[in-house]
Design brief:
Helix content: over 70%
Radius of gyration: 21 Å
Shape: globular
Structural class: mainly alpha
Distance between the termini: 34 Å
Strand content: under 5%
Largest sheet: none
Number of helices: 18
Length: 409
Amino acid sequence: MKKLILNWNQISLVKRILVGLIIGIILALTIPANVKWISIFGTLFVDALKAVAPILVLLLVMHAISKPRSGHPTNMKSILILYLVGTFLAGLVGVVASFIFPVSLSLTTGSEDLNPPGGILEVFNSLLHNIVDNPVNALLNANYIGILTWAILIGIALRNASVTTKDALANFSDAISQLVKWIINLAPIGIMGLVFDAIVTSGLSALLDYGKLLFILLGCMFFVALVVNPIIVFICIRKNPYPLVFTCLKDSGLTGFFTRSSAANIPVNMNLCKKLNLDQNTYSISIPLGATINMAGAAVTISVLTLAAVHTLGIPVDFGTALILTVLSAISAAGASGVAGGSLLLIPLACSLFGISNDIAMQVVGVGFIIGVLQDSCETGLNSSTDVLFTATAEYAKRRKEGKEIINT
């Protein structure tokens, strides 16, 4: 048995995940009633990732900031620019695709109990309150903006601490990182449970009535992942971007697809950044920040579903107004929570730009939840993999300027 486990662990994680994926699909299509208990593995896997992520972010950032770093600047400015540009271009892709392939919706009901933000000021107000949140409350509620703020401040305060204190902090940071590795090794079992639950609970028949809408949404996301993002990476590193793009999609996007939570995928992304030999001082901040504000997939969802509502109601839209929607969707996407379905609650905000009532907008949100089994999964996979992609891109661009060799994974 021990030898079997050892041989299993020696197989690459992606191959093990694919095995779990196939088993989950087979069980869901053949004997779902007899193995309902399998879905608990998916719930436990996502809960474990969500539980460890806040502590991991707090300790890694505190440790990174507390270390003396004279002459060792981070790439955060470049990464933030990439996050903003990538999210804006994703929203623009959604707008252009909606003009080329206009979609009309059969609006439904059932989303009346949701509480979307009332305006862009409310989004910013929530952001500011998250920054000054109580640190214990921030950890309990996985408020990563608050966790980052406190971790940075405490890290700065610890710069003059004794070597013993810093060593203890480093040991705790390493211990949590090891714990993350153990949890990630359980990904094949977790994803087996997740895909089983998704097929049994939602099924695929509910998606057939929204085939064209799904085609536009997923087409835009794949276009961003395989065309727009590679162009951005190539401009920065002046090398073939696809090895890095595919590595990020394979090692980050795949787990993000099934967890459907950028926050839950933070430990996975941290592990990938370490594998890519990136600077921990940078990625310990950029990855949790990206899970909060780098939302290319969310920008696509907001712009496409909003314009679908516009076309359904027959509202004329000039490209100038659509461009404003692109900016609004990019800004709103930064306020989307790093949990499943977070971007959908920002659709009423974008719909208000065209005078669409909240009642109708919430029906559009209802449509979003119907197709969420694929839409939200692809959105999260794109969002999460892009966090690592742009973090690596910024560092590789810096190395290129310094004349250092870039190892393009």
